[in-house]
Amino acid sequence: MKSYQIVDWGKPLQAVLAERPTPTGTEVLLKVDACGVCHSDVHIRDGYFDLGDGKRAVLADLGLKLPFTLGHEIAGTVVEAGPDAHVPSGRRFAVFPWIGCGACVRCLGGEEVNCETPRPIGTRRHGGFSEYVVVPHERYLVDYGDLDPNVAAVSACSGLTAYSALRKLTAASADDVLVIFGAGGVGLTAVNLARHLIASKIVVVDINDERLSAALEMGADAVINSVNDPNLDALKQISSRKPLNVVDFVGASATLKAATSIIGKGGCIVVVGLFGGTLPLSTALLPMRQMTLRGSYVGTIDEMRELIELLKTGRIAPIPMTTMPMSEVSGALDALKNGTAKGRLVATP
Question: What is the pTM of this model?
Answer without folding.
Answer: 0.92
